[in-house]
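Troubleshooting: if your tokenizer reports a length mismatch, compare your output against this known-good record of 494 residues.
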Amino acid sequence: MEYDITKSKVISSLFWKLLERGGVYGIQFIVMVLLARLLLPEEFGIIVLVTVFISLANLLAQSGLNTALIQKKSVDDTDFSSAFYTNLLISTILYILLYFTSPFIAAFFDESQLINLIRLLSLTLFIGSFTSIQNAIIARNMQFRKLFFSSLCAAIIAGAVGIGMAFADFGLWALVWHQLTYQLLAALILLFTVDWRPKLLFSWKRVKGLFSYGWKLMVSAVIDTLYANLMILSIGKFFSPAIVGFYNRGEQFPNLIINNINGSIQSVMLPALSAFQDDKKRIKEMVRRSIVTSSYIIFPMMVGLAVIAKPLVIVLLTEKWLPSVPFIQIFCGVYALWPIHTANLQAMNALGRSDIYLKLEIVKKIVGIAILAICIPFGVHAMAIGALVGGVVATFINTYPNSKLFDYSFQEQWRDLFPSLTLSLLMGAFVYPIQWIGLSAPITLMTQMFLGVLLYVVLSNMFKMESFSYLLTTTKELLWRRKRKSNYSIHNEV
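Known-good structure output:
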């Protein structure tokens, strides 16, 4: 199986990936809003602590092999099956480890409920062993349409289960079964939509080849996950589960937006860039287009979300969640930088430089942990601000190697970002004072959102923003091609 990548295929794949992410995260957002209104912040805080350990175990279980399967130029059934059996073995070992260490984890956080929660949710490790291979096949072939249907159906059914259990006063367990149902259904649907089954094939040589590339990404991802959740673990240890809940809700709002847009771009970028890994000039063009276009979309969303945070929380989550507002505003700044991180890191992966990727992660986390250690004595909000400072420093670190790898320096990247950033800040400065007028929260929210979008579009057109023109042209081209394909199908039928 080798790459067959064209521009139209990349655009179509990005369209379906955005649709999949948007649909799933849109449904999950609605579900989380309803659950937040029905459940307590402490209950969300407890499930967040469990998720930290499950996420880390999932990364170790996959060992970077799924990413290596995407990056490798040519793969066959032996590669896929060998990776699957390896993932399954590691998942079994990790499940046993989590099962027997769960009492110690519960004792550390003084929350006895964690024992059964960790043991139950750890079962998703076995599901992940299978879906990681399916997702690699989908990414290689850019068949994200299949992922759209499996994820969307699973999200709808799992959401109904979670909300139903919350209404029936199951409390914390509504969150647990929402997660379990989603993972299980997504895997079952992929079983029927992706034409792959593990075969009785195994090669240590193939595993070693994949692992030689993937282990660095795995270690990088583990370090990144540990660091990202170190703050959650610290808050859980030194503060209350309710504070964990407020912090998590505050981070989740910008995270949902970024994971939809930036996550979609990231999923498509790796196979697209890998197909041109021998053409450095083409790599630079693609990375630049990714950074310029994604920042044009993400910057105004993050500035806008920071501006409307208070009325948004009141309308969606009720006033009991108001302590999450400062966290939303701070993390909007953190996640606004992700287009830079993603594009630069995916380019390194596509070029096969996972060694540089790992070194960068180690450096960034050393800096981040130092910042966190300084901020902890000053409280939770200072810790969040420290994450923002760490994110800014990380942009310097992530862009540095690529000035040599494909001649795209930090200064050049920020020159490309500056117009979108300036336009977004102007929009935010105009819209923010509306909350001082004294309107009700729903009216304030709708007014700010409408004027913010209108102003950004008008200014984009007025200043002839490159990304604005590019998006319009690309959208028209995509619609024209889909219309032409539809007409061609009708003609053939006739």
